[in-house]
Amino acid sequence: MGVSENARLVLEKRYLIRDAEGNTVETVDGMFQRVAGAIASADLLHDKNADVEQTKKTFYDLMTNLEFLPNSPTLMNAGRPLGQLSACFVLPVEDSMDAIFEAIKQAALIHKSGGGTGFSFSRLRQKGSTVNSTGGVASGPISFMKVFNMATEAVKQGGTRRGANMGILRVDHPDILEFIDCKSSNAEITNFNISVGLTEAFMNAVETGGDYELVDPHTRQVVKKLRARDVFDRIVDAAWRNGEPGIIFLDRLNRDNIVPSQGEIESTNPCGEQPLLPYESCNLGSINLTRMLKEQGGTYAFEWEKLERTVKLAVHFLDNVIDVNKYPLDSIDFVTKQTRKIGLGVMGWADSLLLMGIPYNSDEAVTLGEKVMKFITACGREESAALAVQRGAFPLFEESILPQETPQRNGTITTIAPTGTLSIIAGCSSGVEPVFGYVYIRNIMDGMEMVEVNPILRAELEKRGLYSDELMKRIVKEGTIAHIEELPEDLRRVFVSAHDISPEDHICMQAAFQRGTDNAVSKTVNFCHDATRKEVAEVYSLAFHLGCKGVTIYRDGSRSEQVLNIGKVKKDGEAESGEPSGPIVPRPRPDLVQGITERVQIGCGNLYITVNYDDKGICEVFTNTGKAGGCPSQSEATARLVSISLRSGIDVKTIINQLRGIRCPSTIRQPGLKCTSCPDAIARVIEKVWKQQVELGNWKEFAAPAPQPRGKVDIAGRMHFCPECGEKLEHEGGCVTCRQCGYSHCS
């Protein structure tokens, strides 16, 4: 078995069986034996004379040769009591309190079993609309997203996988502007990826400069019109700022909805690549394309017969997964088996191109990618048809849009999913992403450091007599070989990394694989730190025109917690520069300030709020209560913390979002008040002052004064660090993954 030492460590930490004391009681080989046996047993459901032992050996060889691996829940849970093997689910969120909290309960059960969930909140009525049954006022989709988020926070996925969600809102929902900005703070709704569901009509209006309609989902009445370009630019700005929201093209998802009679596809799984109907799940797996190459005379090419054989075995494997899976809900069991969707994808694409000497950002690579994926889907369809002869077509086949002359066992065959942890196990590049980094420095025992080099690059450098430790350290520092002019031009042209590739080339590769994929393609378009909003907008438009089903972008260094690893691994209490880092220190209170004092009526009297500012922004907040009483100590504490946060560089909008909407019983009892609590009143006055200064042109909207760090800290980085092991995280496949320990934000 060709599993690397790092892969063994990841498997031991995340996949192998442990006893009650936490001790590992399973070997890597034992895991593959367990999974192969459990999945092969499904053959007996369709043929009582099936040679299960032979099927088990075939599946075992397929996995241990690292030619194909199923998704993580299958590796973790097959043959074990939990038995939940699916990675992704979609749940409906209907517009009633009972339905909303039923969805929360169902999501908790899914998270507990090891799955991720996708939701569309587009059916929920807009914020501020009347609830006839109670005479109250609806709080809107975003408030309920926060409830889902908190429920996810409370559930740890069986001790092995963390909760992950996708939240989607249609672009024509009346609360779309609030949704676009709901993750402007990285501390908000942390257990969700979010995407705006765009329509063809909206995108056409963007290009023509026209308006589009916002529709109340409850009454189906048009409530407002917005200029499409303004909303599009707001989406672009938010994504440029910190990568959220992504976008999906809803009409395209439903164009490929194989059973439109069962309703519309409204949502996807947490990484955006698997569109599903409510209560559907999908079982994923990936072929390692580097194992599909053969070498002749020092050159590599695809061995198409081996690829065909591997695809057909993988389809057999994934169809068996559907049958042995122990689903977390009866409704999911039923709906999943109505369409029997599988999602066979690939990994190792970038490494395959390296071996073949083809630059990732070339027309040759794009053409080959489309050819490979169409071939995989075609071979998969052949196997699905063969399985349908033996086992029967999926129950809704006759209602499907698939050609009726060839019954199919599976509604969909292919999906390109992120393969962060799987690709570590397989020892290859992730999904269809380019190589993120060619050289890493890892912390090992006793403070020692180990240089780890992409094996394909290392072999090529050694072959040419160019390898040296000094060169490796330089590559770590620069993050790429593109600008190391001492290296041959042909080497620099082929061994490109994610940030050497233009955003347009990222999209062209995504579109090429999409043309051969039934479902969708999970991929991150990486932008350099200096990329403009216009460039992001151009990529979105290009994705629309090239037929992509969705886009996730990430601008290098756009999240404030990122720190660049520039050749020295960050140790506790040390910055990348080697200088000691320390806590952020607020800037001193300025000698001269100006501001306003406003009287606000609260539930127990009047609250006098003073907000002062200088040329750098708001710097302090004071509160005084009137004679009627109130909570003077709590108001003073809130004001002091707000003041110190503002002078420490915390974004004003973040502070406002944290305080707005906090409710106090004394205000609830008195209708007609403009605020819901003392903190809410403070937030409103801060926001009022800020907006006044923005309108006067004195400040940029929601810009924050720079914090005063103690010690030099470089925050212009390419990656941020793994919360579990401290190594660098890679933004790819619509997710983030640690190549050291296998941590994934989406799993």
Report on the structure:
The chain is built from 24 helices and 27 strands. The protein has 747 residues and is of the alpha/beta class. The protein is globular and about 85 Å long. 48% of the residues are buried. The model is unreliable at 560-582 and 702-719 (pLDDT under 50).
Feature tags:
globular; alpha/beta; 3-stranded antiparallel beta sheet; 17% strand; 24 helices; 37% helix; 747 residues; 10-stranded mixed beta sheet; 27 strands
**Span of the ends, CA to CA:** 26 Å
The number of helical runs is: 24
Helical content band: 25-40%
Specify the biggest β-sheet. 10 strands, mixed
**Low-confidence region ranges:** 560-582, 702-719
- Averaged pLDDT: 88
Q: Structural class, from helix and strand content? A: alpha/beta
Q: What assembly state would you assign to the polypeptide chains in this entry? A: single chain
Percent of residues in beta strands: 15-25%
- What is the global morphology? globular
Number of strands: 27
In short:
By secondary structure, this protein is of the alpha/beta class.
Protein topology:
Layout (H helix, E strand, L loop, with lengths): L4 H10 L13 H13 L11 H13 L3 E3 L1 H6 L10 E4 L5 H17 L2 E5 L9 E2 L4 E2 L3 H14 L10 E6 L5 H5 L11 E7 L1 H9 L2 E5 L6 E6 H15 L3 E4 H6 L11 E2 L6 E2 L4 E8 L4 E4 L2 E4 L1 H21 L5 H10 L2 E6 L1 H8 L6 H29 L28 H7 L12 E5 L5 E5 L1 H9 L5 H10 L10 H6 L8 H12 L9 E4 L5 H14 L3 E6 L28 E2 L8 E9 L2 E10 L2 E9 L6 H16 L4 H8 L5 H4 L9 H18 L12 E2 L19 E4 L2 E4 L9
Parallel strand pairs: 2-3, 3-6, 6-7, 7-10, 13-16, 19-20
Antiparallel strand pairs: 1-13, 2-13, 4-5, 8-9, 10-20, 11-12, 14-15, 17-18, 21-25, 22-23, 23-24, 26-27
